[in-house]
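> example.struct
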């Protein structure tokens, strides 16, 4: 059965009921029908919500996705980062995990330093300010979303985020194990044409 991972933007699409939501709802139905294995990434809980706030705990995120019809989707744990991930919903990292993360990061965000300490040093930011710079945090969440997808068995990564679809990035992400990277409507077309999704 094909693994299909939804990124954070797919959750936002469902909340906004925008045109992409129709395709995402089709993927949810395929999952309910036992045709695909639908997954969301736990790092999505660490992204800013549409109202600009962050989830106060992981249960809030679970309620959020359940309300969108994703309550039966698997939740993929990322590596743990203090101040970013949720304690019970992350993995302790080893060298292999960190190596893969750094590869994803260098492809997606070559202009952003991999370590937060170096990011702050290069920009004259206070490392101990008590909050993580939004630009670095957003990049880290995107990296860990794709990292989670690859680490937990790849398949199809569904995202409308153009960063993942750029010709200067997508082939390299696929080469390090991303499987396929498709927009929601492309994923529906691909899956309905496969025998395992019929």
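> example.seq
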């Amino acid at each position: 059965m094909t693994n299909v991972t939804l990124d954070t933007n797919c959750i936002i699409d469902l909340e906004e009921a925008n045109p992409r939501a129709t395709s995402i709802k089709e993927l949810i139905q395929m999952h309910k029908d036992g045709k695909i294995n639908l997954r969301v990434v736990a790092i999505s809980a660490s992204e800013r919500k549409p109202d600009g706030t962050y989830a106060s705990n992981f249960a809030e995120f679970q309620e959020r996705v359940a309300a969108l019809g994703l309550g039966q989707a698997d939740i993929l744990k990322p590596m743990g980062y203090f101040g970013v991930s949720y304690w019970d919903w992350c993995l302790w990292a080893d060298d292999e995990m960190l190596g893969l993360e750094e590869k994803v990061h260098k492809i997606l965000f070559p202009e952003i330093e991999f370590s937060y300490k170096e990011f702050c040093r290069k920009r004259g930011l206070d490392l101990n300010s008590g909050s993580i710079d939004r630009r670095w945090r957003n990049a880290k969440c995107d990296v860990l979303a794709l990292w989670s997808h690859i680490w937990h068995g790849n398949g199809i990564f569904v995202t409308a985020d153009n960063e993942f679809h750029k010709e200067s990035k997508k082939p390299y992400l696929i080469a390090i194990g991303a499987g396929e990277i498709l927009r929601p409507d492309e994923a529906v077309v691909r899956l309905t044409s496969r025998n395992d999704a019929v």
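> remarks
DSSP finds eight helices and five strands in the chain.
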